[in-house]
Amino acid sequence: MSGTPSGIADEPVPDGGYRRRTARILLVDDADRVLLFRWPRVAGEPGAGHCWITPGGGVEQGESLRAAAARELREETGLIVSPAALGPRVALCSGHADLAWASGVFRDDFFLHRTAAHDVDTTGCTAFEREHITEHRWWTLDELADAREPVYPLMLAELLADLLAGRTPAEPVRLPWRH
């Protein structure tokens, strides 16, 4: 796997007409497990079920994707990684969403980052995140393939299988949108 970040400079991200840009992290430990958070599928409606998502969140005004990913990783997991030390950008997905708090075209960019075993510390999460994250856990590829609740991004198990086999894409892979 290349240690060189792929296809992105550490410069502020133009909005490009997107309603929201997010920087997300495929955080993989030394046992080849990926960290996911359990999140309600519909905010305020726990009866609508839950899904599993990667750490990450919104890119702030004037912030680069790498800086946002490193900040979100620190806030949501307690893991401190400099933007330059973050692994490569390996995937993206975008599409329209109509959420309770926003509507429009959204885009998620995913970085792969390897770490030693890590005890997740969610004390840096925002109040909104603490209210909605009901659980976190490390998943193996087999567990992802057998997940009973939706896992986002879609096709994460297939992407991770390639990444764990050392097949890092030269350009980020476009994954299907989830909505």
Describe the structure.
The chain has 179 residues and is of the alpha/beta class. Helices cover 18% and strands 30% of the residues. It has four helices and nine strands. Residues 1-9 have low confidence and may be disordered.
Which structural class is indicated by helix and strand composition?
alpha/beta
Indicate the overall shape.
globular
Q: Tell me the series of helices and strands, N- to C-terminal.
A: EEEEHEEHEHEHE
Mean pLDDT: 85
How much β-strand is present in the residues? 25-35%
Q: What's the gist of this structure?
A:
This protein is α/β, with parallel strands linked by helices and 179 residues long. The chain has helices at 65-77, 127-132, 141-145, 156-164, and strands at 20-28, 34-40, 50-53, 56-58, 89-98, 103-114, 135-139, 151-152, 173-174.
Features:
179 residues, alpha/beta, five-stranded mixed β-sheet
Set out the fold topology:
Elements: E1 20-28, E2 34-40, E3 50-53, E4 56-58, H1 65-77, E5 89-98, E6 103-114, H2 127-132, E7 135-139, H3 141-145, E8 151-152, H4 156-164, E9 173-174
Parallel strand pairs: 1-6, 3-8, 5-9
Antiparallel strand pairs: 1-4, 2-3, 2-7, 5-6
